[in-house]
């Protein structure tokens, strides 16, 4: 059944007058629309019930630098910059941004489309100025939220929204890696997460993963060997082994051991995968960590950035029957943790200077006021400036975690 077929008038009784519950109509249309038809469903209902003149959906590309229209595939409309546009302003701030056209008597509202902190894109609605008030503003924000959830569900059944995210063709390895990721950002009252991989369209073996429960957050940061398909296959094997162990309720050391056995059993020690595996207690801020290789952890506390030195253990798959042990540390409300791959801290400038402690500390300080969802992109931009015209020789991955704790 097509979404617009659900444009039924839903009414309720208020003081003897029949009023239209507009938001409920839009919500029902979105939930009943075909996966590829969400934009048409929201466009039809907003036109009928909110007097919208135009409705457009823009999604962020993999590099998080441009917004692309969903209904102009393949690439028949110009992309919009995240940094220098009104939709980009709403996307960065994650707040509705309103443009007023007094001559035309109209307003254009740019609304963030996000799911639990994961930024997907922007819903742009243009409507008459006299049809826009505080109630309409709140309802349109709710519409954008419902649309985001429906897009996530629809991606199981259609490639439309994933196609719109592409400013260029992905390599097969990059396709495999992106499909493995949980998202690019996530938020709960206790924490906020943001992450990014570069180069977005030709990544190799770096990866991140997270999972949350009522009481814990588990975070994995991996750095695999090799290039292309081989690196992607190694990462897929390790991540799925870790997920399998985590979902079986195993402890952190046992999760690492199972993944180690899976990698060694397949490759017999010829390749290995570096990993940071962490588990945070949402109530207390106590954390367990296993440092099995090259990803590094930094902390910013009360304005001071410092590297967190951990006890190095063997990467996954290097030897048979490796045993792992956890270390413990404590995070406090207000702490920011940064996790970086060797494709970040080992990058050299044209003069040969490594992007290590001094440059990384400076970058953490300069981005301290940004939300975690924007920190990785900003730091990778600075990293590109440090590298200069030299092409990247490795993946660069940054994961940012802000810890709020429970009151």
From TrEMBL:
Protein origin, superkingdom: Bacteria
Keywords for this protein: Hydrolase
A GO molecular-function descriptor: phosphatase activity
Residue span(s) of domain PPM-type phosphatase: 190-403
Pfam families named among the record's database cross-references: SpoIIE
InterPro entries recorded: Bact_Sigma-Reg, PPM-type-like_dom_sf, PPM-type_phosphatase-like_dom
PANTHER family reported for this sequence: STAGE II SPORULATION PROTEIN E, STAGE II SPORULATION PROTEIN E-RELATED
Record protein name field: Serine/threonine-protein phosphatase
């Amino acid at each position: 059944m097509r979404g617009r077929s659900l444009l039924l008038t839903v009414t309720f009784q208020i003081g003897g007058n029949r009023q239209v519950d507009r938001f409920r109509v839009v919500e029902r249309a979105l939930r009943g629309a075909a996966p590829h038809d969400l934009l048409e469903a929201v466009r039809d209902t907003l036109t009928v019930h909110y007097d919208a003149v135009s409705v457009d959906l823009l999604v962020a590309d993999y590099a998080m630098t441009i917004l692309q229209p969903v209904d102009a595939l393949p690439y028949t409309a110009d992309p919009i910059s995240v940094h220098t546009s009104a939709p980009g302003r709403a996307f960065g701030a994650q707040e509705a941004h309103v443009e007023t056209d007094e001559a035309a008597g109209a307003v254009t509202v740019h609304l963030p489309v996000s799911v639990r902190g994961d930024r997907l894109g922007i819903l742009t609605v243009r409507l008459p100025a006299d049809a826009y008030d505080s109630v309409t503003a709140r309802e349109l924000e709710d519409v954008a939220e419902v649309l985001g959830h429906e897009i996530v569900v629809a991606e199981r059944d259609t490639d439309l929204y994933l196609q719109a995210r592409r400013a260029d063709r992905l390599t097969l390895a990059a396709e495999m890696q992106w499909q493995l990721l949980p998202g690019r950002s996530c938020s709960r009252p206790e924490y906020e997460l943001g992450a990014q991989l570069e180069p977005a369209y030709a990544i190799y073996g770096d990866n991140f993963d997270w999972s949350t429960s009522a009481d814990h957050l588990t975070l994995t940061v991996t750095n695999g060997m090799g290039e292309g398909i081989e690196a992607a296959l190694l990462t897929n094997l390790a991540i799925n082994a870790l997920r399998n162990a985590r979902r079986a309720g195993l402890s952190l050391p046992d999760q690492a051991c199972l993944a180690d056995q899976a990698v060694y059993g397949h490759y017999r020690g010829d390749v290995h995968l570096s990993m940071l595996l962490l588990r945070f207690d949402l109530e207390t801020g106590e954390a367990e960590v296993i440092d099995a290789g090259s990803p590094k952890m930094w902390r910013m506390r009360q304005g001071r950035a410092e590297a967190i030195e951990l006890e190095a253990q063997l990467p996954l798959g290097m030897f048979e029957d490796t045993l792992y042990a956890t270390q413990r540390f404590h995070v406090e409300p207000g702490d920011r943790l940064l996790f970086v791959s060797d494709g970040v801290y080992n990058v050299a400038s044209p003069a040969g200077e490594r992007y290590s402690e001094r440059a990384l500390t400076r970058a953490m300080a300069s981005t301290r006021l940004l939300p975690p969802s924007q920190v990785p992109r900003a730091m990778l931009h600075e990293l590109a400036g440090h590298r200069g015209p030299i092409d990247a020789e490795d993946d660069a991955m940054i994961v940012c975690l802000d810890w709020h704790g429970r009151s």
